[in-house]
Design brief:
Layout: H1 2-12, E1 19-24, E2 30-40, E3 45-51, H2 62-77, E4 82-88, H3 92-100, E5 104-115, E6 118-128, H4 129-132
Parallel strand pairs: 3-4
Antiparallel strand pairs: 1-2, 2-3, 4-6, 5-6
Length: about 130
């Protein structure tokens, strides 16, 4: 049920160094979540997370809008200088998207991701404040 999902996201992510939001479709149905985590104010950097698990809800602009809002929040509200994200190497659409909006690849964790009995590289990417606009 949707209320239980909202509660899980709200309570499951209550930490002083992170903020989490649900992603909804145009009808208000929860389709995913996004957040800034490990916000280190001493270094002005944070990690970005986003998941829209249903393939039917992907490639519709929801992720693009969520990432844009989260980067604005990180850079403008929290005054971060650097936002990092890890991307599963098999997710070529996500890698193309992040490169397109200005993320740069910093490294590869070889076989750093495991799902369905299969290993994939985990691609480490980042964007700096001055690269975002």
């Amino acid at each position: 049920d949707e209320e239980a999902e909202k509660e899980r996201i709200t309570n499951g992510h209550k930490k002083k160094d992170s903020v989490w939001y649900t992603i909804t479709d145009l009808e208000g149905n929860i389709i995913g979540e996004t957040g800034l985590l490990r916000m280190w104010s001493a270094w002005n950097c944070t990690d970005l997370s986003i998941i829209i698990p249903d393939p039917e809800m992907q490639q519709r602009g929801y992720g693009t809008e969520a990432i844009s809002l989260m980067l604005n929040l990180a850079f403008d509200h929290y005054e971060m200088n650097r936002v990092a994200i890890g991307v599963v190497g098999l997710n070529t659409n996500a890698l193309k998207f992040y490169r397109k909006i200005g993320f740069k690849q910093e490294g590869i964790q070889e076989q750093g991701y495991y799902y369905n009995n299969e290993y994939s590289d985990f691609i480490m990417m980042r964007i700096l404040r001055h690269e975002w606009r």
